[in-house]
Amino acid sequence: MSDSAPYDPYIPNNGGQQEPGKGGNARTQALQAQIDDTVGVMRNNIHMVSQRGERLDTLQDKTDNLATQAADFRKGANTVRKKFWWKDMKMRMCLIAGVIILLLIIIVPAVVATR
Questions:
Q1: What sections of the protein cross the membrane (predicted)?
Q2: Long-range contacts made by residues 95-99, C-beta under 8 angstroms, separation at least 24?
Q3: Are 35 and 41 a contacting pair, CB within 8 Å?
Q4: Kind plus residue range of the DSSP H or E element containing 39
C-alpha cells in the first residue's frame, strides 16, 4: 500500500492483490458481502414499514369516513323515524275524527228523533 493515497476500505489495495500473510482481501470481501446483505435486509424492512404506514393511514381514513357515514345514517334514520311517526299520528287522528263524526251522525239524529 502506498503512503500517498488515503485509506479507503471500499477500494482494494495493491490493485486487488492480497498482501502476503494477511488474508485480508477475502475476509474483507466476506465482511462486505455480509454488510451488503444486512443493508439489503434493512432497506427491505424500511420499505415494508413505510408500506405498513401507508396502509395504516388508508385504514385510518376509511375508519374516519365510516364514522362520518354512520353519523349521517343515524341522523337520516332519526329523520325518517320522526317523519313516519308523524304520518302514523296523523292517520290515527283522522281515524279518531272519522269515528267521532260517524258517532255524531248516528247519535244526533237518534236523540233529535226521540224528542
A1: 91-112
A2: none
A3: no
A4: helix 24-114
Task: Report the distance separating Cα 72 and Cα 66, nearest Å.
Answer: 10
User: What count of residues does the chain have?
Assistant: 115
* Cell numbers placing 7: 485509506
Residue showing cell 281515524: 95
Cell of 109: 239524529
pTM for the model stands at 0.47
Q: How far apart are CA 98 and CA 104, in angstroms?
A: 10
User: In sequence order, what are the residues at sequence separation of 6 or more whose Cβ sits closer than 8 angstroms to the Cβ of residue 13?
Assistant: 1, 19, 25
- Residue where the block lists cell 395504516: 56
**20-73 residue pLDDT tens:** 445 568 899 999 999 999 999 999 999 999 899 899 999 999 999 999 999 999
DSSP assigned state of 20:
T
21: left (phi over 0), alpha (psi -120 to 50) or beta: left
